[in-house]
Amino acid sequence: MPNPLWPYTSPGIPDELFEHLPGIPMSQREIRLLLISQLRLQSDTVLWDIGAGTGTIPVEAGLLCPQGKIIAIERDEEVASLIRRNCDRFAVKNVEVIEGIAPDCLHELPEQPQRVCIEGGRAIHEIIKTVWQYLPLTGRVVATAGNLESLYTISQSFAQLQARNIEVVQSAINRLETRGFSQTFAAVDPIFILSGEKLD
Prior knowledge:
Largest sheet: 7 strands, mixed
Number of strands: 9
Distance between the termini: 42 Å
Number of helices: 5
């Protein structure tokens, strides 16, 4: 039965439909669409989402992969509860939320991933190096970078691991907003999305 909040098969749930907490990162709709396109999901994909934040990617991926499994990793108990509430809002049943710190908790995860989305984490190089060990051939890692340091670290990590088919996309998005009596375009903070495949 379709969920009344989002009765569609396409991704792109509006940001305001998610419950959120002040200061907790949320992948905005247009960024989410870019991320999901890079993940190249299938209906039965097993996805690890590391640094899941508000839970927008687990919700969207859970809806797109009805026979799949989404494992959302979040270090903060309150934020993990927020992810669970957002999954409940959209009646997503195939998301498991793990409270833990990556990469230390990754060896405890119940299923091996075919896709990994990395939306945060202080030890980004160690996280990428660790998840690479669990990926099968043709597995994909998609990671976001909001600053130059993260961009460099992710790029270097892919190079050291000899990732193939590397793609880098930088978002440049403007949204129409009403300010006073006029409508104007406001820029969404740019972000880099890097992806790479394990082919040997």
